[in-house]
């Protein structure tokens, strides 16, 4: 079954992905016109991910890479990788399928030959955050064919669909392994330090965004200096820490504008903005409209 998916994250900005322990492989359909700001904010999860747009113009970003995808293309996102998804134009009528699958689908038991020989080379490659899949060669065409087969299997659920989907996914993974072989030869192994620090600092912002926050407080949450904090944010997501704080405040304000009748000025104050004028300015910069216009649009 392919279910419509409402994007959500926990307090660590880990994406909440409902899945079965018996078969940790799910496919979700996401309509971005129903999401706040028409985008999936910076997040991460332990699953591997394949994102497949069914409209042109999807933008998938990791700290080091920006990928533009059209219908008929896909992108693989490595486990535990910070990433965000948006669109080149307005998110109306923009949607995608997303595969989420645990390594156990491919490896079976922990420490198996499948894990050591076939999965770890990708998960441990520092620079292999995201891989574009396009039908420009034989391998890319076959991978897109396999993706279509898996979508059909989940949609129709014929007898044995789990085994067939696992088989197709295994073939796709081997092709991914071959296609990245040359790239991985010159790449280093993963150093999770930046990612761990980033998650700690993002978590601090999420817990304290209603308060007045200073740069040194965000930095202290990960045990780094303010300068290193700023560098880490820039390396990982391309924003300054205070830009990220404002964007998160706007996201929370937008949710409140959609879901409650609380006065706009009160929402701005509750989300940490010092004045109505500053709230309006930052909201317009991030969302392309005023808080009042956003509330009206999302309630019609």
Strand numbers in spatial order across the main sheet = 1-2-9-4-7-10
What is the 3D form? globular
Unreliable runs: none
N-to-C span: 31 Å
Number of strands: 10
Topology:
Elements: E1 3-4, E2 25-31, E3 40-43, E4 48-53, E5 58-62, E6 65-69, E7 74-77, E8 83-87, E9 95-101, H1 104-107, H2 113-123, E10 130-133, H3 138-156, H4 161-179, H5 181-185, H6 193-208, H7 215-220, H8 226-237, H9 241-259, H10 264-270, H11 276-287, H12 291-298
Helix pairs in contact: 3-4, 6-8, 9-10, 9-12
Please summarize what this structure is.
This protein is an alpha+beta fold and 300 residues long.
Provide an overview of this structure.
This protein is α+β, with helices and mostly antiparallel strands and 300 residues long. The protein has 2 domains: 3-185, Jelly Rolls (Sandwich); 193-298, Orthogonal Bundle (Arc Repressor Mutant, subunit A). 46% of the residues lie in helices and 16% in strands. The protein has 12 helices and 10 strands. The chain has helices at residues 104-107, 113-123, 138-156, 161-179, 181-185, 193-208, 215-220, 226-237, 241-259, 264-270, 276-287, 291-298; strands at residues 3-4, 25-31, 40-43, 48-53, 58-62, 65-69, 74-77, 83-87, 95-101, 130-133. A 6-stranded mixed beta sheet has the order 1-2-9-4-7-10, with helices on one face. A 4-stranded antiparallel beta sheet has the order 3-8-5-6, with no helix packed on it. Strand 5 (58-62) and strand 6 form a beta hairpin. Helix 9 crosses helix 12 (291-298). The longest helix has 19 residues, at 138-156. The two termini are 31 Å apart. 31% of the residues are buried. The mean pLDDT is 89.
